[in-house]
Amino acid sequence: MNHKQSLLTNLYTFSAAAKYLSFTIAAENLFLTQGAVSQRIKQLEEQLGFKLFVRLTRKLALTTEGKRLWDVLDTSLESIFSEIEDIQFNELRGELYIGVAPTFAQSWLMPRLGEFQGKYPNLDLKIRVKASQLDFKHEPVDLAIYYSNAHHPDLFCEKLFDEQLTPVCTPLYAQKHVKNGVDFNDTCLIHCTESLDSIRSDFEWNYWLSMTNNSFPDRHNSCVFNHAEMAISAVRNSMGIGIARKSLVQRYLNSGELITPFESIQSNLSYNLICPKGLELRPRYQAFSRWLRDKIIEQGDVEFQGNI
Predict the structure, then answer these.
(1) Helix axes 3-20, 34-48, angle to 10 degrees
(2) How many CA atoms, within 13 angstroms, populate the side-chain half-sphere of residue 245?
(3) What is the pLDDT of residue 113?
(4) E strands along the chain, which residues?
(5) Hey, how many other C-beta atoms are within 10 angstroms of the C-beta on 80?
(6) What's the pLDDT at 111?
């Protein structure tokens, strides 16, 4: 076995040992003996010139160098094996792992996703629901839909559609609390921080007020939710007036359960389809992206934005 072949073999063995932090479990998964795994790790450390593991009393730990190598190697191997699977199965078999914020998933994606599943029955869908943005290096996600400013310099970003912000409340709450003109004194303002974990909780209300030339009320109560559906539920139960992302409350507006007593404005954020650079060329990404574009065009009240 030449040097490169030996290095690749040892790196693959290291990836298993780093994943489980156990030579024994790595050996079981690789169908090797524990001694063979240990020998390969020792040989790899000699090839690289630095230690990969710290042998503690009852467990293993990665060294700083080992952690750096594992971060790169794990992502690289995942891409390699995924690419091989794509070639073998013409890319439209296997798994498509989608990351998405919970309320966008529930309100916009899920009512439509069954159609995509029916169109590509050999793709097994995995949905990772997470309110904050995903770390593609450490989470096994193929692509994600973010509500963001579309600034992701290290990732491929395809802008789907813009969002509108609009105050919403029940007709009953409006009758009791909404006065002539924009006056939110003595009301309860409901805030949502889903997908905005790095921004102050009153960001969306402040943005709407500033863009409509209004000031923040002096006398008001507030409720803050980190889950948009919970914030919408609070509004639906007449707890206050919320600042809503219109695409997430459209069905309640259509039914008349909620109303928009004031004007809507364009949010300064949008929904974007994100993936590691290069993966946007894969047929399964393109199939999902193409399907999303069709759904957005069919929706009619938003316009597909295209690549950025």
Answers:
(1) 120
(2) 28
(3) 94
(4) 53-55, 60-62, 94-100, 123-129, 143-148, 155-168, 187-192, 220-225, 241-245, 265-276, 306-307
(5) 10
(6) 92
The pLDDT of residue 168 is 96
Specify whether the CB–CB gap between 98 and 143 falls below 8 A. Answer: yes
Q: Which among 204, 225, 214, 190 is positioned nearest to 267, based on CA atoms?
A: 204
94-162+269-307 matches 3-70 in CATH topology: no
E strands, 173-240, in order: 187-192, 220-225
Domain ranges of the chain: 3-70, 94-162+269-307, 164-267
Q: Which two tokens stand for residue 102?
A: 């919970």
94-162+269-307: CATH, from 1.10.150.130, 3.90.25.10, 3.40.50.410, 3.40.190.10: 3.40.190.10
- Predicted confidence (pLDDT) per residue in 155-195, tens digit: 999 999 999 999 999 999 998 888 767 778 888 999 998 88
Give pLDDT < 70 ranges for the chain: 1-2, 78-79, 81-91, 180, 198, 300-308
* From the candidate CATH numbers 3.40.50.2000, 3.30.1330.90, 2.10.109.10, 1.10.10.10, the one assigned to the domain spanning 3-70: 1.10.10.10
Query: Residue 191 has what pLDDT?
Result: 92
CA distances from 234 to 40, 81, 136, 169, 225 (A): 58, 45, 33, 9, 9
The pLDDT of residue 90: 55
pLDDT of amino acid 84: 65
Q: What is the CATH number of domain 164-267?
A: 3.40.190.10
